[in-house]
Amino acid sequence: MQIKLGFHGATGNVTGSRYCLSANGKNILIDCGLFQEHDLKGRNWVKFSLHPSKIDAVVLTHAHLDHCGLLPKMVREGFRGRIYCNSATAEIAKIVLLDSARINQEDADFKRRRHEREKRKPKYPAVPLYTEEDAMATLPLFFAWNQKRPLNIGEGLELEFIEVAHILGASSVRITVTQGSEKRSLVFSGDIGRWDMPILRDPAPIGEADYVITESTYGDRVHGAQQDIASDLARIVMETREAGGNLLIPSFAIERTQELIFFLSQLLYEDRIPHLRIFVDSPMAIRVGKVFRNHPHLFDDEARQLMRSYRPSNITLTRSVADSKSINHIRGTAIIIAGSGMCTGGRIKHHLVTNIERPESTVLFVGYQARNTLGRLILDGQEQVRILGEMYQVKARVEKLTGFSAHADKDELMRWLDSISTTPRRVFVTHGELQAADAHAENIRQQKGWQVEMPEYQQEYVLD
């Protein structure tokens, strides 16, 4: 029996997830993500190692950009196969890809105008990675599968989606390869979520797996106590209000914004924070919110109960650019939730320009900040940062809530592995910066005694 497995992203870093499974004459990509670390963005422009026309299908674990964001580029270059996922992932991914295409075009236009204004000759032309037309061509290729039973995708290959609680629709994927009388199962973790978190049900047990490809984002640390989230958020809101500034929360449009609204709604319902104006300044988050309402069967009991009993009236959904700009003219404290979560683009940059030099304002990070992103630079205490082509002093107060993370910590990663009912032949540790990946790999060796590999970029393995 022979199976080939290639690693084309998320190796020694946390974005750009892309794995290629070759078996029984078929080539299947598991995820097709965008690289978001500044020093790795050049990889987004590199030609695919296998021509897209030779890829038979893509399987998506979930709809975050670092897992689906290169699909329009691949379609433009010749991919015509199916994109398998569940319906929640399909609905969110379509929103994400169209938004990403628009941002790519807007960023390219902005850079081109700035270069012309500054009379600069750039090293690379300011062109988008892909366009809205490319994204639109991608949408008809999605094939949603919501059954608990495996889906036969031909040539002795079956796939299953297993709930993993990272974001709405997020799944681990098991692909079973049959060759004659032999079978091998490969489980791709995707991004592993957490237990006892708001909105979504807990990760489901995995069952059997001959080979495991696991993420390691937080493989070297334990998150803060989950029960502290509401109290810490209330404290930060009150302190910012007393200082007279705004509370800026760079937030991922998918899941994190919905979790923030859940916690803020709880605090408002219990009168633990003042009824300040809250702006959700992210058209994509607003659209994703509608997808959440389409899938209440994926919620836990607590989320369903809060939705039935309380809807705050002080939350404004900001759709237009004009409405977004008007937020910065409001006097008094406002809570502004805006994308992107790592401050790499979107409306949060404009709010940072207005608030980053105000000591009375607070920038609150509620998610992972990848290396060399603007968010990471601010969080790491850099005194000066470049935003929209200009340098600004970081005078605003900077806070972080780790308990919000949608990624399992090192103990939860092991808990997920504990749900595997067989002893894997090999485990591949991916999707983590080197220190975190190393720590997770060592934890697996020590606690499980399993054989562990740490793949390098574009490394390929032959599996028996």
Question: Could you give the topology of this structure?
Answer:
Elements: E1 3-7, E2 19-23, E3 26-30, E4 57-59, H1 65-68, H2 71-76, E5 82-85, H3 87-117, H4 132-138, E6 142-144, E7 151-154, E8 157-163, E9 171-179, E10 182-188, E11 211-215, H5 229-243, E12 247-250, H6 256-269, E13 277-281, H7 283-294, H8 301-309, E14 315-317, H9 321-326, E15 334-338, H10 348-355, E16 362-365, H11 374-379, E17 384-387, E18 390-393, E19 397-400, H12 410-418, E20 426-430, H13 434-448, E21 452-453, E22 459-463
Parallel strand pairs: 3-4, 4-5, 5-6, 10-11, 11-20, 12-15, 12-16, 13-14, 13-15, 16-19, 20-21
Antiparallel strand pairs: 1-2, 1-22, 2-3, 7-8, 8-9, 9-10, 17-18
Features:
2 domains, 464 residues, Metallo-beta-lactamase, Chain A, 7-stranded mixed sheet, single chain, Rossmann fold, 13 helices, alpha/beta
Question: Would you kindly provide a written description of the structure presented here, covering whatever features stand out?
Answer:
The structure is a single chain. With 464 residues, the protein is an alpha/beta fold. The protein has helices at 65-68, 71-76, 87-117, 132-138, 229-243, 256-269, 283-294, 301-309, 321-326, 348-355, 374-379, 410-418, 434-448; strands spanning 3-7, 19-23, 26-30, 57-59, 82-85, 142-144, 151-154, 157-163, 171-179, 182-188, 211-215, 247-250, 277-281, 315-317, 334-338, 362-365, 384-387, 390-393, 397-400, 426-430, 452-453, 459-463. The strands form four sheets. Strands 6-5-4-3-2-1-22 form a seven-stranded mixed β-sheet. The protein has a seven-stranded mixed β-sheet with strand order 7-8-9-10-11-20-21, with helices on one face. Helix 3 packs antiparallel against helix 4, helix 3 (87-117) packs antiparallel against helix 7 (283-294) and helix 5 (229-243) crosses helix 6 (256-269). The N and C termini lie close together (5 Å). The mean pLDDT is 92.
